[in-house]
Amino acid sequence: MTDAAASNEDRGPVLLALARAAIASAFGETCRTDQSAPWLRARGACFVTLTVGGELRGCVGSTEPRHSLLEAVPATARAAAFDDPRFPPLSASELESTCISVSLLSPLEPLPARSEEQALQRIRPHVDGLLLEYGRHRATFLPQVWEELPDGRELLGHLRLKAGLPGNFWADEIRLYRYQVAKWSEGEIRQMVSDA
Asked: What is the mean pLDDT of the chain?
C-alpha cells in the first residue's frame, strides 16, 4: 500500500474511477479521471474484482508491485474484464450492472510453517490474504475469501487446489506468505456518499 498521507477515503473513488474508465474505454466510451494525485505514481500491487448481481465475474491481479498504480489499476481492470480465463469477456451490456472493487496489497510477509498445523496457528482469519508457492505451483486468496471459506483448514485446502495441488498436500518446500489489503467497492463508496 502506498503513501500514508493519502487517506483511504481519498484513494478509493480515484482508483475505482480509473478501473471503470479503463473497462469503458474498451467499449469506446471516454471517461475523465483524476490522475493528479502523487501517490498514483508509486508502485503498488493490486487486484480488481468484478461482480454482477453479487456473483464473481472476473478477478485478476498481482501480489508484486511492478508498476505504478496509474498503470497497474487500469491494466488489471481490463484483464479482469476481458482476460480472466474462468469467464467469457465482459460485454458492453453488462458494464452498467457490474460492481468493481479494487484491492491494494501490503508487501508480502513470509509465513514460515513446517506443517499445516503450524500454518493454521499463524494465519489470521479475515485479516490475512495468503500466497502459496510450491515449485511452479502458485495461488493466492485475497482476505475477502474468508467470507466464503471461514475455516482455515478448508481455506488452505482450496488454496492448494487452486495452485493445482491435492487439497491435503503438504511438503517442507511449501512457501506461504501473508498480506493485508485496503479494499474499495463501488457499492460501498455509493453507500458512504448516500449516508453523508
From this structure: 91
C-alpha to C-alpha distance for 102 and 80, rounded to whole angstroms: 11
DSSP bridge partners of 47: 61, 103
Q: CATH number of the domain at 8-105, please? A: 3.30.700.20
Q: Give me the residues paired with residue 184 across strands.
A: 102
List the domain boundaries for the chain. 8-105, 109-179
Reduced 3-state DSSP string for 22-89: HHHHCCCCCCCCCCCCHHHHCECEEEEEEEECCEEEEEEECCCCCCEHHHHHHHHHHHHHHCCCCCCC
Q: Report whether pLDDT(112) > 50.
A: yes
Distance CA 104, CA 118 (A): 27
Query: Which pLDDT does position 133 carry in this prediction?
Result: 97
